[in-house]
Amino acid sequence: MRLLVNKIFLTLSVLSALIGLAFLGWILITLFIKGLGSFHFNLFLNDLINDGLRNLIVGQFILAGLASAIGIPLGMAAGIYIQEYGKGRYASLIRDLSDIMMSAPSIVIGAFVYAVIVVPTGGTSGFAGAIALAIMMIPVVINTTDNMLSLVPVELREAGIALGASKYRVIIDIIIKAAKVGIMTGILLAFARIIGETAPLLFTSETSNYFSLDLTESFPSLTVSIYDLANEPEESSRDLAWAASFILTILVLGINLTGRFITRHKE
Amino acid sequence: MPIMNIKKFSFTYPGVEHPSLRNITLPIEKNKITALIGPSGCGKSTLLRAMNRIHDIYPGNKYDGKIELLDIKTGNKNNILDIKKENEFIELRQKVGMIFQKPTPFPMSIFDNVAYGLKITGLKNKTELKDRVEKALKDAALWKEIQDRLSKSAMGLSGGQQQRLCIARAVAVKPEVLLFDEPTSALDPISTGAIEELLVELKKDISIAIVTHNMQQASRISDFTAFMYLGDLIEYNKTENIFLNPKEKRTEDYITGRFG
Predict the structure, then answer these.
(1) Residue A6 counted as domain residue
(2) How far is CA A133 from CA A57, A145, A190, B11, in A?
């Protein structure tokens, strides 16, 4: 009887895993077929106005890069604070808030930034988009930093203190170093997450057909352009959307795999 | 002559009503090894951790009595329980170092591990740094094994080597007292033997207090032994007296293995 239950349970688990994988495979295969069909190396050389994707890819990286420049230091500082300094109610409040923020729908964050930045500044801008992405990123970085620091054995902290190091030196020189790989992986995964986001950018940075480095104007974004192109009536636009989706998927996949590779390689 | 004098010392952990240590009076003799023995939970580690105030990483502890530390230069005795400022704590911990049960190599190279404490004290001169690191590694009987891989990560050393590295790191800053909290309980017999020899060697320059569960270890290496039980100091004497001729019944019961 127990053996039978065991077998049924195993079959069910395998079946659900297969169903999940099947859909994932389906998505990937469709993406590969459609994406590769419209993929051309010239896409990297031309801007969207000339039916290329160059400005969008560069723009997306600038947005995500700027978001990281804002989000990583803030998130790490907050993570260090709640793990190392904040004991008691204030720290756990920040931790809870960060957890809530992590599960906030991205479109809500987009709407929030629209209300507090886009409307007062009178228009969509690269800055607004980067800030929306940074807001997406901060709770993930806080969470990673917090968790990874908590894994550093308490003896290591005590050993540093016992050697006559001050608390902040122990944190900077020893604790963060010990947690470095974990934190880096977490940051990389957070980056992979925001680089594929559309909703926070939809009405903050919007997108642009032209190459631009001016963050005070609407800013080229790969994801928002995919959304726009997919809604166009022309076949050629939709093909371009497929190619863009394909490139985006490869990018995100690559970053994710790098993250995993680092973790495995280091441990 | 004692380098530390614990006088009527009581200690209470935060959020606890009853003290974990009661009215302990105990000298730590200069250039001798003092062993603290007793069953688990008797307070020996708690006492040891009070001697460089490492307890204070976690706030809310209550201290009573005195722990005096001899200032070798001036001959003054300072009560370390009066310390409140961060820089005084740092000074105390540079004088009174600590080695833990589990080896605690920092995630950096072997050289940087030993140099860490020195860099904190502000030593920047590269050649002096190198000399001090080499001296410390030699003092910790580790130099021969690792001299050709100083730039390699310390995490790759064996457990016994890691522990000797931690000792080298502590020795490098020239402490006056070293506190050992069961330093060999995670090591194999050969590494344990090496560390025991090292301790006996080190007491020429440094006064040592060691917490140990291993009675043979206490009898082998220590000059004085304190037996503690349930937060009280039951008996303190020369090690041979404690082991051969204990005055208290509880001491005798413990060292003969009747409880504990």
Answers:
(1) no
(2) 16, 18, 10, 51
